[in-house]
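Residues pack. Consider this:
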Amino acid sequence: MRLNLTPVAANIAVNSTSFIIGDLQLDPGDSGPLTATIQNSGARVLTNASGILRSLSSHVTVTDSIGVFGAVAISGTAENLADAFAVSANINTVAGFAAQMELVITDTDGFRDSVEFVQIVGVASPTTPTGPDAYGYYAYDNTEIQPAGTATQYDWIDISTIGTNIGFSDVFEDDDDSQALLLPFDFTFYGNTFDSVTICSNGWVAFGNLGGFWDFRNWRIGSPMGPRQTWWRPIGMIWQQQAAEYIITTMLPSKDSLCNGMCKHFGRVFRKCSKSFCLIQHLIRLRRVTERYLCSIKM
């Protein structure tokens, strides 16, 4: 005897979620009921379906994990309005954060499946940090107002009289140089730990010892490669090892129309201008604070 068995099952996806109090948006610091709308794209009806909500993120806490959806027809949807979940969002969560969640669906006929989805917390804006990237890093600047206290406080530290001049002299085409310098402490970046940085006269810095490597020269502003070298040429670099800080000074011919435009739109960047050139200074600070590693850039 031959039996041909065709399995039939429901297939669940989370279409949307709703925070059903206040402004209907789950924001950092909010606590309250949350519903989910699920869709059954399978070939079997769900009978008396219920759900268990789990948070896979430290930024969202589930305070009531049980919700009831009832019957869910084939190609149908259902929302647990009559028995909502309850969640709480950490007040220090960056607005726009995508919290990973998991919903386990069961019914009285023995169906059980789980599906992961993303719950957005708050709305990102120009005054919230940028990120996270794929590794989890955020970029902060001095305009952040949310989360409270995250705005970067920049201090310009002039090390021109106490630092060590690297001695680069890059004034001609292909007159390039780079040098590796030891850090006063190990610095962890994207999971890798470095004890040195390489500084190049073409204006870039990289972790690790890349001495003798000086590619990635600049190009026109507006190009993916940045400003052209004849318009943007570093003329000096200083390194202060005790604080793991250095200053890059670059030169722009101000008689060029590009420099005039940059001075007009980015005037706050420029430290000194004359008829023949403009000076721009960048201060990059590498710091170790307890178990955290911080990198800040001041222009």
